[in-house]
Design brief:
By secondary structure, the chain is an all-alpha fold. The chain has helices at 2-7, 12-28, 32-48, 52-64, 77-87, 92-99, 103-117, 122-131. The longest helix has 17 residues, at 12-28.
Amino acid sequence: EALGHHQHLAMPFELGRTLLVMGQVQRRAKHKRAARQHLQRALEIFESLPAPLWAERARSELSRIGLRPPAPLALTATEERVAGLAASGHTNRQVAQALFLSPRTVEANLARVYRKLGVSSRAELGAAMARKEPGPPLP
């Protein structure tokens, strides 16, 4: 009943919360398909608001039914630059020198990029970056 009310109101956060609760209840009742639909919709709403803590709750519920949700956020400008250089064959040290960063900062950025893009190697990173739509021009 709450879902019906929230769908007709301009209250996306409340709709997202309702969908999240419905997904949780359906997951616990072993209704995976319905749970997945409601949780994915809740995640989309929370990411569009943005409501990162609530989006993480939806992601957590999705992972409990065996679904790996899409990466939560777009790459930051620094992550984009680091990923581009790493994907084109540069070592972490070369990337660090080119961008005036420490090698550990490059490693941390690459770890976030790998997680966001769902990859686990430089080869996969190269393929993911080739598929990725170009972002806005950098200042």
